[in-house]
Amino acid sequence: MSAPPRVLTVAGSDSGGGAGIQADLKTMLALGVHGMSVLTAVTAQNSLGVQGAWELPVEAVRAQYRSVVDDIGVQAVKTGMLASAELVETVADLLAGTDAPAVVDPVGVSKHGDALLAASALDSVRTKLLPVATVATPNLDEVGQLTGVRVGSERDMRRAAAAMLEFGPRWVVIKGGHLSGDAVDLLTDGSEEHWLRAPRHDNRHTHGTGCTLASAIASHLAKGRTVPEAATAAKTYVTGALASGFALGGGIGPVNHAWALRGDGPR
After folding, report:
1. In contact, 214 and 103? CB cutoff 8 Å
2. Which of 88, 113, 187, 198 has its CA 20 to 30 A from that of 177?
């Protein structure tokens, strides 16, 4: 039996299993690719928030990456929590030397508002990481952090996309999930434009949404799909996962990564 497409996630661990490395690997399994991981940080995290975070040494991150890429190889890479400027720059250098599409989720804060990226690392994200991204997937808070553009409506999303593209990613997905109305994302490379729309589901259990979308895009790119095809398929997958998110603990529960396998998605 031949191996499925291989996707590598470079991100932090979520001990509660809803986001981070755990969400990435669940998404990859659900979408039929082989997920591999480079751990950048460990968090003590649950449905209520992040109680602690500890980044790994640069040497450990580099060794994990080289171990996987040099032996097994990858068809796509996805990045998430990178924590510090030193880790951002290290991962950017590794991506620049890897012949595979890179999906960069510029994680700044958790779903609960906890900081997951040092303020001193923002310039490294702008100047080192985004220029090597095939697709960048910021949410509206991350757009504000990185560009200063505040998005209050769909019309503002074009300005946000243009500002993000100035940093050098080939494509950007501006995630409009925090706006009112339908859940609308804008995918563009500056000339081609795709509005990805889905009905908004009345479900507060949305932990891991951003990690899941980026991992789904990477998974579909690894299968050979174009960026617009990958982003459209990823949006469908995330919409189903959001619709069937479930309660865990006393706070915000996770999206349901297994919805398509279990038939739990929207009817």
Report:
1. yes
2. 88
For this structure, is 226 an active site residue?
no
Name the active-site residue from 90, 206, 212, 239. 206
Interval 42-84: pLDDT, tens: 999 999 999 999 999 999 999 999 999 999 999 999 999 998 9
d(CA 96, CA 108): 22
For 2-46, how does the pLDDT look when each residue is reduced to its tens digit (9 = 90+)?
899 999 999 999 999 999 999 999 999 999 999 999 999 999 999
**211 part of the active site:** yes
Among candidate residues 35, 80, 108, 210, the one labeled active-site is 210
Indicate if 209 belongs to the active site.
Answer: yes
195 residue type, one letter: W
Kindly state the greatest CA–CA separation across the chain: 50
Give me the catalytic one of 90, 211, 212, 245. 211
Cβ neighbour number for residue 67 with a 10 Å cutoff: 12
**Active site includes 175?**
yes
- Residues 144, 109, 254, CA angle at the centre, nearest 5°? 125
Hey, how many other C-beta atoms are within 10 angstroms of the C-beta on 47? 18
Nearest Cα residue to 27 out of 206, 255, 229, 226: 255
